Amino acid sequence: MPPPAASPPVLGLILAGGQARRMGGGDKPLLRLGGRTLLERVGERLGPQCGAGLALSANGDPARFAGFPGPILPDPVPDQPGPLAGILAGLEHAAARGIPRVVSVSGDAPFLPEDLVARLQAAGSEVGIALAASGTRQHFTIALWPTALRDDLRHYLERGERRVGAFIDRHRPAAASWPVEPVDPFLNLNTPEDLAAAEVALLRSEASGRGGGRSAGA
């Protein structure tokens, strides 16, 4: 019996469009954790899992992300309607290059699992969305999206819709779940207290020789 066909390459999309008001403003992915930016840490986790490379969803001057190893994609619709606009940018960019699926992640989640893409691919279907979960929470912006959904997503945004979960529910979502110990792999850093807690978690993971964020079976 022949081995199963390899999954097509996935584009990794890092969402960096938030205003970081609870952090005092600015770009959260450029904050430093353990001497490196969150963006560097997210890219280091996600990049090896994405055969089609990485892209960054961000508005404004792209020069502030100099050194990022991929294109900087502004929102393709006006008025900065939230993370779905960034996801649409990624889907359209991928579709123009023949890439069938995009995995989106938050730009402030430095402990992403090293098996994120593989497990989302295993959970999802060719036409549905697969999203990540940990504990009792689903993470709507950490998900695998077929590029075939881009027209429906554009129409959804043009009608004034903004809710990520409501859009996901339209498209037969599946989920892959990870444990929250020793650290939630989808911990995102919204406040200075979150950043301080992440520093502690990073020190503990380095001291124990664990990278954090692997699946329970890894």
Topology, please?
Blueprint: E1 10-15, E2 32-33, E3 36-37, H1 38-46, E4 54-57, E5 72-73, H2 83-95, E6 101-106, H3 116-123, E7 130-134, E8 137-146, H4 150-158, H5 164-169, E9 174-178, H6 192-208
Parallel strand pairs: 1-4, 1-6, 4-5, 7-9
Antiparallel strand pairs: 2-3, 6-8, 7-8
Helix pairs in contact: 2-4
Main location: cytoplasm
Protein name: Molybdenum cofactor guanylyltransferase
EC number: 2.7.7.77
Write a short abstract of this structure:
One of its GO terms (molecular function) is nucleotidyltransferase activity. Residues 12-166 form the MobA-like NTP transferase domain. By secondary structure, this protein is of the alpha/beta class.
